[in-house]
Amino acid sequence: VLAREGRRPLAWVRNYQGELGFVANLTEPLDPVEHEDLPAWFADHPDGVAVIRYRRPEQVADYDLLYTTPTQYRRRYAVVRPAGSVAAEKAKAESDGTIDGAGAEP
Questions:
Q1: How many whole angstroms separate alpha carbon 1 and alpha carbon 50?
Q2: What pLDDT does 13 receive?
Q3: pLDDT tens by residue, 40-63
Q4: Model-level pTM greater than 0.90?
Q5: Is the pLDDT of residue 86 over 60?
Q6: 78: which strand partners?
Q7: Which 3 state secondary structure label does DSSP give 63?
Q8: Which helix (H) or strand (E) holds 79?
Q9: Which terminal CB of the chain, N or C, has fewer other CB atoms within 10 Å?
Q10: Which contiguous run of DSSP H or E holds residue 12?
């Protein structure tokens, strides 16, 4: 998911301990952010992506969900964007002609 999102600003919500650096082959540091500070981080990085470690679905309900782990052991992980941003980018790409209405590139 992170590879598909390209080189967007990346935040980790809650206690980053290097979980993604090696596995995702990150070449740039990510921003550790507290959950309550995530809306401000997205305001400063509107094209950003955040990885959230969460327990309850309502903790990620305010965001566009790009991915979530299918199982839960203590906590789940989700990759999110600001609410509405995915639909807005798709609409812009369709109007620019960079993708067709089905989401495929021409």
A1: 11
A2: 87
A3: 999 999 888 888 888 788 888 888
A4: no
A5: yes
A6: 52, 68
A7: strand
A8: strand 76-82
A9: C
A10: strand 10-13
